[in-house]
User: What shape does this take?
Amino acid sequence: MDIEEIKRKKLLELQKKLAEQQQQEEALLEAELQKRALLRKILTPEARERLERIRLARPEFAEMVEVQLIQLAQLGKLPIPLKDKEFKALLEKLSAMTKKKRNIKIIRKWNSMDAYVLFSGGKDSSLSAVILKKLGYNPHLITINFGIIDSYKLAEETAKILGFKHKVITLDRKIVEKAADMVVEYKYPSPAIQYVHKTVLETLADDYKILADGTRRDDKVPKLNYSEVQSLEMRKNIQYITPLMGFGYKTLRDLANEFFIMEEIKSGTKLSSDYEAEIRHILKERGEDPKKYFPEHKQTRVVGLKKKI
Assistant: This one.
């Protein structure tokens, strides 16, 4: 390979890296604009002014408050718009809760190394479980189902291959029905998938003290930002672990190939064990074509092991 070819390849790599950084920055900006728009609807002008004053003095607390406001509003647990007096009362409760979490020593009665991994049978959730085991945790795999279809079957098969304990938890079908509404409303699935993932984590956090999933560094959805993670851990007194967050796409691909035999499935052609499967089914029941909303993509499923884990 001559010098000019090497320079050309390095230039292409740099251009690709810059494009990826720009995409991430644009995604962050879009998320921030959406958050601001929601807060304008949730809070009166006086309450927003109070929030801005808090941001100057306690920026991390302000971020946690914003997450709480949006979540409570989505659950229908806030009067909209929230007046300044009501907002002040909510702030006092959150502040007291934060102080209580700092001061109380919790005596755990569960096995402190049991980690419950949201599991679809794909390479990411499978690799997360393997990494947790290597770190000394006891992975327990959890597949979420909403009673629409038996979408958990593939995850059950993969869990047996991996040799980890596995259970299926059925949650209220209203969650995915709302998600299907969101897909149609927004004309694309990302907000719906994000809503389902957050709701699942909020629900499981009431029963499990260490939760984990296969969220990757390069993922946009589903993914909790720093403030959301902080809020979840603080409010629910749990640990939330994302073992793959520090790895890039190439590293994860190599790690998965090191451990697993995998098959690629074209989205929508075979029943998968992720949130998407039941949302797609609801759309079909309503006479909608899921292909209209879900872009075609490849899903990878673990079908065997290359080495002992």
The domain at 114-305 is CATH 3.40.50.620 (Rossmann fold). The radius of gyration is 21 Å. The chain has a mean pLDDT of 88. The chain has eleven helices and seven strands.
